[in-house]
Design goal:
Transferase(Phosphotransferase), domain 1; 2 domains; single chain; six-stranded antiparallel beta sheet; globular; three-stranded antiparallel beta sheet; Phosphorylase Kinase, domain 1; 16 strands; 445 residues; alpha+beta
Length: 445
Amino acid sequence: MRAGDRIANKYVLVRPIGKGGMGAVWIARNELVDASVALKVLGPDRSEAADDAKRFRHEARLGSKLRHRSITRVFDLVEEPDGTLALVMELLRGKTLEARLREPRPVSPEEAVAIAVPILSALDHAHEQGVLHRDVKPANIYLSVEPDGQMVPKLLDFGIAKGGGKPDFSTVDGKVLGTPGYMSPEHIRARAGEIDGRSDLFSMGVVLYEMMAGASPFDAPAPSARLAAVLETDVDADPRIPPKLWIEVQRALSKRPSERHPSARAMGNALALAIGQDEASLAKLLRTAPPPNEARFDNRTGDGVEAPVAPTVQPSRSGRWIGAALLVATIVAAALVTRARVAAPTAATATPTATPTATATATATATATPTAPATPTATPTATATAMPTATATATTSTTASGAPAAASSGLAAKRPQVPGTPPPPEPAPAPSATTPQGFAPNPGF
């Protein structure tokens, strides 16, 4: 397949964005309605394989049957005269959880639970329809970003799912289908009669552990070693996982299905309770910047998806009030200090001539007065002034003695001149620093 090829006489291939076990995924344009879609294409060389074609059609049926906000929508299945099959799906903007885990920024427990709970809700919906996913892993969880910036985790790829009244695809040519390291013990043993929804909960437990600990609990160099680790290794607690949350993750990783949570919904509720959140508050943790427009859709990362945007935690209202209170307190304190300095009597001098006082500028300043000299005039040793600023931003300045001065407004008044004395040199402007207007939002979890 090449860019520009047409499928079903209306879908024009734009570019590939991924490749899986059963074909490539393309961005395509529906010319009839001028809309972008995702096409999962199984070429004629693969569609001739009976098992691949059956699995592809099976995924199409399950995708159209399952209706959940965290499950990718399937619109249609088209077949070309040469045998090419194409699954028409909604086009998502964002990145996979697998890509997120490759980033240096760690996943916090709150973010991990916020991602897991919607996926568990999708699994609960699938289980109620008699469908088992059986391939839950980071590559099959997509962090989709809606136009308003809300991130919605979505479950992908029901290619080896069980259910829907169709034949079981547990094995092909005697090989167990699944991903080593994420398959449950009963899935590895290929005991079809023992597999139910709790097998997906084991896989979700592995994903949760990997998000928070940074590595799979059953990591090994070879697939066979990972399968053996699932069957034989007891997972120890990781210090990066909070104790209350570890209780639920450990339960999901139990070797025996009867020791796990009874349902995906029960597991999701337990995870949210462990961190003191509910589904609505967890959704607020996944707010991010809106995705790029379709005109900018060609900006991609190396793995063929759009340039990702990191989720941010919105600053709380209490945090904004605290920041404002601290700002006001700082300005008031500086004003009181300056007023006390200006009101204080100047040092006595040996002459009746007037000593210059603090000048009024856009930023308040204070004048340091020398001790009594033996000269007929008193010349200030240092005068700290600051030029008026062009904005309404509150600023502070530093006096010659190092004390902060308060913020004020107005134009600088002329310095008084004593008759018969040369004018004092113009002082250098004192350094000023802009007072922060609030606290920057937390860049991450």
